[in-house]
Records
---
Amino acid sequence: MTLLACPSCDALHDVPDLRVGQRAYCLRCDRMLVSGRQTSLDRTLAMAFAVAILILFALFFPFLSIEELGFGNTTTLLGVAAAFLTGWLIPLTAAVTASIIAIPLMRVGFLVYALFPLWRGGAAPRHAARVFRWSEALRPWSMAEIFVLGSAVALVKVADLATIGFGPAFWAFCAAVVIIAFERQITDSASIWSILDDEK
Ligand SMILES: [Zn+2]
């Protein structure tokens, strides 16, 4: 038995040792408390790889296409960010690029470093617990969804002036945003911490 507080509503639960495939949910608010160790590693790593692939795809494929009076142009995600690299907008552009690209990719790197060896049945790498804590600490700063919302609003405003098309990178980025949002709900930090604790 382990005493666990629900991360959403703080209700305390006595959680028995779970068998493979079992999950424990909060009695009050239904949030998942623990999902078993292998499942939690499977899920976290699957999401990390999916996010990495989608963001890398979004970097190199067309993000937007704009057409006006027969002239067309396409741009990538980095091209969108680079368009604002002038004067006082440079720090803002750097912050936006970090929060939509660098921080999500850093979190993926941390998770894969800390958890992939465990998932393969090996020992935890050096400083695995610290690296996992970094990835948790970066979570609020990974703000890809804000960017998607902002782009959508901006594009609706210029839609009258030119024909705007979303490229494959835009949809890949949207998929990454959905996965990142989902990840917050189902990452089972309690199980991962208990694995890392045992490895010390
Ligand atoms: Zn709860």
Note: The two ends are 20 Å apart (CA to CA).
---
Amino acid sequence: MMAVDGGDQAGELRARLADELIARGYIRSTRVEAAFRAVPRHAFVPADTPLDVTYHVDRSVVTKRDENGVAVSSVSAAYIQVAMIEQAELRPGSRVLEIGSGGYNAALLAEVVGPGGRVVSVDIDPEVTDRAAGLLEAAGYGGRVTVITADAQGEVFGRESFDAIIVTAGAWDLAPAWLRGLAVGGRLVVPLRMNGVSRSIGFRWEMGRLVGTSAVVGGFVPMQGAGEHLDREFRLPDGRGGAVTLRFDDGAPDDPALLDGVLASERGEAWSGVTVGHGESFADLYLWFAGFLPGFCKLAADEGTELAQERKSWFPFGVVRGDSFAYLSVRPALEGRGVEFGARAYGAHGGEAATAMVEQIQAWDERGRTEPGFEYWPTGSALARFPDDVAVLHKTHGLVAITWPAC
Ligand SMILES: C[S@@+](CC[C@H](N)C(=O)[O-])C[C@H]1O[C@@H](n2cnc3c(N)ncnc32)[C@H](O)[C@@H]1O
């Protein structure tokens, strides 16, 4: 390990965080390590941000909110920034485009590609680009990063091509302009939303499609402009002033009015026999639902509702069947340690909804506990036929295929 930078508190925290990012496998190369140790992250967050938040492994720092208080720009969490730079496989001299500016990530990129490389950072919001350009200048990176204001969905880069494009806003689809902007053998790193579940996927071109070579769990502020994709939300009042909200990225029910009053019905449940140990990751179960469970949605419960009082016994993922819905639940495992997955459900057809969810939990357990692979097939490419065990998600400009290798 390198020595503590300067002995000041920020330098100490940065050095400690670098060690943690290496130990947890997010930093894998000496170039990214050196960049992380060199760039003062605290120079790019609002001045009143506590240093322990700035130098926390998985805390982002919001830099701008919209009129409703929703975060629209942030300095992303350190773990996802370094993981995405690793996914981009940059070298000294690489040309890299960052979509979504803030300054800090661009400074890391400038360190990684060195003086012979090129870093362009584009953001749709002039307030963000002004701030990023000013902070980069103040931190000594002004001449090493080109900052542009534009909607990155469009043709804003002319004929310039890049060895890597790193998208730092949550994308529902891949813009054709990004694919055109990639040099031969180039990498596209993008937090892609697949039916509401996000992964930062490192893609490379291979025979007319993009093949994912790595994936990291992480969420981002949403894409704005031409690439914006709005969820559809339905609030289900509980009759006591609270509500449960169902949010659909795709496949929202045709007649949500069928769900009126559903929370007043008696609740049922079904259990899968599938267990998970404490500390064992099951993030890919959500991705499995996103790919294979029609009617899949996310769930949020207002404080004071029955669900809010039972927060430790469920996860915010559900499924709708007509006038009923079910949501992912857990109970202590009967044998051994950990929890068993199941579904609790409301509505006249809650049993069907719960069974549909439980069947997919069991299918994930039988076939899917391996790491999924991702491909993106742009519209117009010679499409492969996908077997039934591949989840296919249709997008505007292509499709995403998610595969689970056999155990
Ligand atoms: C998480 S922030 C970027 C963080 C930054 N990379 C950093 O250094 O930490 C995401 C940014 O994406 C920008 N953005 C959203 N949609 C965009 C679009 N269509 N084109 C360009 N930028 C966009 C937002 O304005 C926001 O500033």
Note: The radius of gyration is 22 Å.
